[in-house]
Specification:
By secondary structure, this protein is mainly alpha-helical. The chain has seven helices and no strands. InterPro entries: TspO/MBR-related_sf (IPR038330), TspO_MBR (IPR004307).
């Protein structure tokens, strides 16, 4: 019983680790640079992002635990569903360093477009395993849709922020 709690907590906390590290590494210059970017009127307030990501990371982490548990742990049946999950998590964690760290809007855009595809693939692979886990990913996919549109707009509307671009 105690061991299952450890797995539940571990899977649920794991997504937060990369999210926290991304914030921690990029926190110094992020607010000033981000505020200077031209953003659409529908861009959420910076204050919303930590709250949203806390909820989203918790939901996706718990969902991954449900999949792992239903498949009986790490075995051959888990390779594709948890592999897709791990790949999308890696791309999720890579986005802040691309966007805020090296300020490469094009790489951030490529990253998030690939991330969208991996999240959809993850959800499709999870659907026949655990519908609740799949549903826990729906808010994440919705947020990613908004974040993808926002990344596209920021990339298009800030040509001076694109690396290698000369005026």
């Amino acid at each position: 019983q105690r061991r299952m709690w450890a797995y539940t907590v571990g899977f649920t906390v794991l997504p937060h680790v990369g999210g926290f590290l991304g914030w921690f590494i990029n926190r110094k210059d992020m607010p000033v640079w981000y505020e200077r970017l031209k953003k659409p009127s529908w861009c959420p307030s910076r204050k919303i992002f930590p709250v949203a990501w806390t909820v989203l990371y918790t939901g996706m982490g718990y969902a991954s635990y449900l999949i792992w548990n239903d498949l009986g742990g790490c075995n051959s049946k888990a390779i594709v569903p948890l592999g897709l999950y791990g790949a999308q998590l890696a791309l999720n964690w890579a986005w802040p360093p691309f966007f805020f760290g090296i300020r490469n809007l094009k790489m951030a855009l490529i990253d998030i477009l690939c991330l969208d595809g991996l999240v959809i693939g993850t959800m499709c692979s999870w659907y026949c395993i655990n519908k609740v886990a799949t549903l826990l990913m729906v808010p994440y996919l919705g947020w990613l849709a908004m974040a993808t549109c926002l990344t596209i707009r920021i990339w298009k509307d800030n040509p001076e922020a694109k690396p290698g671009k000369t005026e």
